[in-house]
Amino acid sequence: MKTLKIPEATIIRLSVYSRFLAQAERRGIITISSGEIAGGVGVSSAQVRKDLAYFGEFGTRGVGYNVAELYHHIMKILGLTTEWSVVIVGAGKLGSALAMYGGFRDRGFRIRAIFDNDPAKIGEKLEDLEIQTTENLESVLAKSPAEIGVITVPADVAQEVSDKLVAAGIKAILNFAPQVLSVPEDIVFRNVDLSVNLEILTFNLGLPRR
Amino acid sequence: MKTLKIPEATIIRLSVYSRFLAQAERRGIITISSGEIAGGVGVSSAQVRKDLAYFGEFGTRGVGYNVAELYHHIMKILGLTTEWSVVIVGAGKLGSALAMYGGFRDRGFRIRAIFDNDPAKIGEKLEDLEIQTTENLESVLAKSPAEIGVITVPADVAQEVSDKLVAAGIKAILNFAPQVLSVPEDIVFRNVDLSVNLEILTFNLGLPRR
DNA sequence: GACTGTGAAGCCATTCACAGCT
DNA sequence: AGCTGTGAATGGCTTCACAGTC
Hints:
The structure is a homodimer. Chain A is about 45% helix and about 20% strand. Chain A has about 210 residues and is an alpha/beta fold. In chain A, the strands form 2 sheets. The first copy, chain A, has a 7-stranded mixed β-sheet with strand order 6-7-5-4-8-9-10, sandwiched between helices. In chain A, strand 2 (about 60) and strand 3 form a beta hairpin. The structure holds a DNA duplex (22 and 22 nucleotides).
């Protein structure tokens, strides 16, 4: 079982499994089978076992998996046993919401700073986070490095912001701007396009026979 | 070219192509080749042609595609030549941000109502949208139907909200709650998990050799 | 000569089915 | 007997390569 080439779909499912296992643990369940996990999250049991097999052997034949143990293994695989520092660029509606979104904090992500280039917004407080000018980006990151940068600026300045984040030494970027960005090979990069999600719905609504 | 079984990845790319074509049209470009589209959005030219081939023949051999025409075809395929009515349930940070997110309006999505069950929030205004109690959900949708419901409530009430939306006659649901939901077969359904996106980054940050 | 449309080949992910433990 | 781990079979998406058209 080589560590090479793990499908992204597997990673997404691992994240779902981890939440299901957390729930199960809270309910006091000690042992769980691949079939029970599968039923709980809506995939096949073979899929669950294959996904886990990429990373090792975590179960006991004839018995199943220890819930707490498997949970911890998965969190470790996902890199969630340590805290991650995140900065957000773009303090519009979306950026501000993400800055205070509890779902990130719950999984160990710490929002360290939020930047914007609108002078009217500088100094504004989002809970205990103060919106700073984008000009400070490099100096702030030099003083307190962050691994992850989130881009929530309009499409036309997204590439510029991305370049700034890279120059400031960020290691990974999550881009919410509906804009194709080019980043160096060694930067971990991912696009999230909220509109696309609605568009997949409307495409399917247009399909015949449902 | 049967209409059957179009890969979801194709739909996502069509959405990206459409934005690229809109940009091209604004720049006054009349004709474009699959290779130029491919270069602009970071896929192969064969991929672009295959994606389009699912839906018909839009190009001219030896020439390429007419930008305006292809753009319109794709928007039609995606179901974006009509307006869609959207309601949001959950007026927390994320729900409020989505309610006012310009990226949706730009693509023809109209947010018609936003609901919450926190009495403190009822009556609050988000621009020209007033937060309503979730109890009104069914009556509001009865009076002015909407096709799409967006769920941005905490995980533990997401299933309940989903059931309410279904009962109120919604046709499609976009779920932002980190919770596996069960919905009837005939409802178009899609999950968006913002945390998962960060977790894919941290998984990749943990990988050796980069 | 340039570029589309598409069958065939290649590649990757999922499902099947069963050997191997407990 | 029950359930994991996994090679083999299947199915689906992407890439290749070229015939067809302008």
